[in-house]
From TrEMBL:
<feature type="region of interest" description="Disordered">
    <location>
        <begin position="26"/>
        <end position="52"/>
    </location>
</feature>
<dbReference type="InterPro" id="IPR024572">
    <property type="entry name" value="RcnB"/>
</dbReference>
<feature type="compositionally biased region" description="Basic and acidic residues">
    <location>
        <begin position="27"/>
        <end position="52"/>
    </location>
</feature>
<protein>
    <recommendedName>
        <fullName>Lipoprotein</fullName>
    </recommendedName>
</protein>
<feature type="signal peptide">
    <location>
        <begin position="1"/>
        <end position="25"/>
    </location>
</feature>
<dbReference type="Pfam" id="PF11776">
    <property type="entry name" value="RcnB"/>
</dbReference>
<keyword id="KW-0732">Signal</keyword>
């Protein structure tokens, strides 16, 4: 190898090793929208309640203190916004709606 080629290769190698490689963060593939807790449409008797209200941990345990009647078999009282709603735990159907009294 001649002297000029060797100097040129070393110069190029020096330049490449000194330059930093730009790193670009990966963007999210799909934007997601989370449903707001306050963004539940007005539910009516016969509608299906959202799944989170069919879970046992959503049930109101003190329904009698709130002036509500005993829930029927496989149903539970839950509070959705400003209403007490009786929801069937098997299919999520709303069987009764009572406004919250303050």
């Amino acid at each position: 190898m001649n002297r000029k080629s060797l100097i040129a290769c070393l110069a190029i190698l020096g330049c490449v090793s000194v330059t930093s490689v730009a790193v670009q963060a990966q963007e999210k593939s799909e934007p997601t929208v989370e449903q707001s807790k306050e963004n539940i449409r007005d539910l009516e008797k016969g509608d299906r309640a959202p799944a989170k209200f069919q879970r046992p941990d959503a049930a109101l345990k003190d329904w009698s203190k709130r002036g509500l009647k005993e829930p029927s078999k496989e149903a539970q009282w839950v509070k959705i916004n400003d209403k007490y709603v009786m929801v069937q735990t098997t299919n999520g159907q709303i069987t009764e709606i009572v406004p919250v009294t303050k």
